[in-house]
């Protein structure tokens, strides 16, 4: 009698093997620089999620009698201007920088894409109102726009998230609208209109799936812009407030050690650099990089 394989196990095994093969195929197609970028992105995502759990000391603990102490077995990255462990503060700061930037970039990209789809499938006057409003916002330099909002509303974590998202939503809208307008002219979309499909269906089922990859690439750029924006605000003392600290705050509070090349300022600066460079390398290596989306806000 021939043994039979249970259909349920077989059906569960096929999707898993298919997903694994797709991941292997995608990784094999990445260039060396793309793999370096992917490794850096994964590293900072892990540190952003689990950094405080890996910290050897409490973030605010004064653990060294020397300020701006060098590397040692007890303090791998030395101590800061108050004698606190730099590695512990760096791991804690990564959580704020990566977490805030990731959430703000997701909100900016989702809002921009949603407004772009709405403008594309709505009557022309709706498109004009949304587009002119976004043009007004995008005409204001991003740093000035963020500084005005911080001065007006404060710099709590929730407000920083919303301010960073609001600052870069216009740029995300502009990119997504250009994609959606082009897709809206395609034959398959016009056929959907001719069938009498509703605007919501056309936006979500016909246009949105075909603009996902460019929007994801633009999301990576928004993430980099927001990391730099939040770090700049923190360097000015307008970002994450004590006792919390992000990577930009760590640079600002240890600026007095710059002349001596203290690790307390070099480590967070290098962390910001490797995070943003890693994301850029990964974006450059994505499929369709010849049509890479560029632009600021």
Automatic annotation (TrEMBL):
State the membrane topology. Multi-pass membrane protein
The organism's taxonomy opens as: Bacteria, Pseudomonadati, Pseudomonadota, Alphaproteobacteria, Rhodospirillales
TM segment ranges: 36-55, 96-117, 144-168, 219-241, 261-283
Return any one Pfam family short name: BPD_transp_1
Q: Give the family this protein belongs to, as stated in its UniProt record.
A: Belongs to the binding-protein-dependent transport system permease family.
Protein keywords: Cell membrane, Membrane, Transmembrane, Transmembrane helix, Transport
Q: Indicate where this protein is primarily found.
A: membrane
BP GO annotations: transmembrane transport
Question: What's this protein's name?
Answer: Peptide/nickel transport system permease protein
Originating species: Nitrospirillum amazonense
Q: Could you tell me which InterPro entries the record lists for this protein?
A: BP-dependent_transpt_permease (IPR050366), MetI-like (IPR000515), MetI-like_sf (IPR035906)
The protein's location, in the record's own words, is: Cell membrane
Q: Which domain of life is it from?
A: Bacteria
């Amino acid at each position: 009698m021939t043994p039979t394989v249970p259909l349920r196990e077989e059906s569960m095994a096929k999707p898993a093997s298919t997903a694994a093969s797709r991941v292997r195929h995608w990784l094999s197609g990445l260039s060396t620089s793309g793999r370096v970028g992917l490794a850096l992105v994964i590293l900072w995502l892990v540190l952003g999620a689990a950094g405080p759990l890996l910290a050897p000391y409490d973030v605010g603990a004064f653990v060294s009698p020397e300020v701006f102490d060098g590397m040692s077995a007890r303090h791998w990255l030395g101590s800061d201007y108050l004698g606190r462990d730099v590695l512990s503060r760096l791991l804690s700061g990564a959580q704020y920088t990566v977490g805030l930037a990731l959430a703000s970039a997701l909100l900016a990209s989702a809002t921009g894409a949603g407004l772009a789809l709405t403008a594309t499938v709505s009557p022309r006057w709706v498109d004009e109102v949304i587009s002119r409003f976004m043009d007004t916002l995008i005409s204001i330099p991003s740093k000035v726009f963020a500084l005005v909002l911080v001065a007006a509303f404060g710099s709590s974590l929730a407000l920083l998230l919303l301010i960073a998202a609001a600052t870069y939503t216009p740029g995300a809208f502009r990119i997504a609208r250009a994609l959606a307008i082009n897709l809206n002219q395609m034959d398959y979309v016009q056929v959907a209109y001719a069938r009498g499909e509703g605007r919501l269906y056309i936006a979500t089922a016909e246009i949105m799936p075909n603009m996902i990859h460019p929007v994801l690439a633009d999301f990576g750029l928004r993430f980099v812009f927001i990391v730099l924006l939040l770090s700049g605000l923190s360097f000015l003392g307008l970002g994450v407030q004590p006792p919390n600290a992000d990577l930009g705050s760590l640079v600002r509070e240890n600026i007095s050690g710059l002349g001596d090349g203290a690790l307390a300022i070099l480590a967070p600066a290098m962390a910001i650099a490797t995070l943003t460079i890693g994301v850029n390398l990964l974006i450059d290596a994505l499929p369709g990089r010849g049509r890479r989306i560029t632009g600021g806000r």
